[in-house]
Amino acid sequence: MKHLLTATTLALSLGTTAIADEITIGFAIAKSGWVEAYDAPAVAAARIRIDEINAAGGLLGKQIRWIEADTKSDQAQSASAGLQMVDEGADMLIVSCDYDFGAPAALAAEGAGLNSFFLCAEDIKAGIQGVGPNSFSASVLAAVQGATVAEWSVQERDAKTGYVLLDTTIEYNKGICTGFDWMFPKAGGEIVGTDTFLNGDASIASQITRIKSLAEEPDVIMLCSYIPGAASAVRQIRAAGINSTILNGSAVDGSYWLDAAPDLSNFIVPVQGSIYGDDTRPAVNALRDAFEAATGAGPSSTYAYPGYLLIDLWAKAVERAGTVEASAVTAELEKMDNEPTAFGPRSFSDQLHHQNTAEMQIVEITNGKPGVIGSFTISEPVPLDVLLK
User: Which pLDDT tens digit goes with each residue over 90-126?
Assistant: First the structure.
């Protein structure tokens, strides 16, 4: 019996040593269901950065390993997946792109005293305001996207009038319109009408009738929506003979949906990084190529990139803190002010764990083909009181 106990103790000791020599990241992400389309590319990019760090010697001298659990695009399952990752010894959690589907897992991390990062959430609640002090997103707030295209359209396209068409289905859409509503008049434009619809609506005929009843066609239509509802709305707007510049947020980035709106032109999307190899920053194009080499295909949308960014920023904070302990890492993240990254500077504070200003690539779709036409940064950050509306 004595020999058996000694052997068991030795085995446990060796196991503990092995685990102590690693840092574990838990992915509570959608591997099935509709959220997978957003999560999978960002996870792939996150793992590229993990591999780079490991190849360079690791983090705090330790290799990073990852474990995962499938949320199945279900909020209840998200909570279970988060708890599973905590139970399996994760040192930090990465959760789904969308706030509503990532928050239950992030709350599990918060309850366990761990850091969490949303893969690409752009709702302010995916952070201090909704989850807690140790939760972050490396992505650019939806309101910043709306504010960016608002100011860009006034400065670059001499837009004077705008019509707002809000899909009220998810919080992300509301954020885009909030940013546009704040910036467009501030930049010199006039909002001449607003309307709402739901993503699943088969028809927006009544909304189109109200647009066509205006004395003059608006210079821009701010369409705050996502696929498939956004594609349906665009098709109907163009079929009605309305030629206004249509603006949207990053949720419609990518060419995968363009068959639903044949030969679309005069459509603008702001993105953190181009997926077409034409970004104005060489480092982003290099990452796009690395993504293709690693996965066999280029990213389907800009939402791959925040996965790489979050690992990069978290790892820097861990190195500076000298630990993965959440409060120490949070303190280092909150010190980041214009931290250099491949996508331009990133900042966090004790008031905001998102980006409320960022250099955005402006993608225009012309004759059904998307491409970068330049970059743009809003003239001032979106104020916290606007973000909290």
Answer: 999 999 998 999 999 999 999 999 999 999 999 899 9
Q: Provide the pairing of β-strand 220-224 with 369-376.
A: unpaired
23-139+281-346: CATH topology: Rossmann fold (3.40.50)
Pairing of strands 63-70, 22-29: parallel
What is the predicted pLDDT for the residue at 20?
65
| CATH superfamily label, 142-271+360-388 | Response regulator (3.40.50.2300)
Structure tokens at 80: 């279970």
Q: At what angle do helices 99-111 and 75-87 cross, to 10 degrees?
A: 30
How many helices, marked H, and strands, marked E, lie in the chain? 12, 12
3-state class (DSSP) for residue 108: helix
Mean pLDDT of 35-50: 95
Tokens of 205: 């005929």
**171 band by pLDDT with thresholds 50, 70 and 90:** confident
pTM (predicted TM-score) = 0.89
Nearest residue to 269 via CA among 208, 207, 225 = 225
